[in-house]
Known about the structure:
This protein is of the alpha+beta class. It has one domain (2-84): Orthogonal Bundle (Arc Repressor Mutant, subunit A), CATH 1.10.10. The chain contains five helices and two strands, in the order ααααββα. The chain has helices at 2-5, 15-27, 32-39, 44-52, 75-81; strands at 56-61, 69-73. The chain has a two-stranded antiparallel ribbon with strand order 1-2. A hairpin with a 7-residue loop joins strand 1 and strand 2 (69-73).
Amino acid sequence: xxxxxxxxxxxxxxxxxxxxxxxxxxxxxxxxxxxxxxxxxxxxxxxxxxxxxxxxxxxxxxxxxxxxxxxxxxxxxxxxxxxxxxxxxxxxxxxxx
Length: 97
């Protein structure tokens, strides 16, 4: 995501955190399991970091066994990246061409 926005935030957020944040931003709301399926790795630690920094938050629960949390981005996320709203996210390469 930082590449799309022309920002150098690598010292503040790890690559894994930025990747996870991008997945959530573009596909929200989604569960931890869905994030892990997309990324192909466990994201417990990264998700805890993003929650602690208030960049993502639980926005509901999925109506299935275990009632997993659904995650979405926060106002803090928009402010962190200088966005007016989610509609200002850069288009994904190959999306909507």
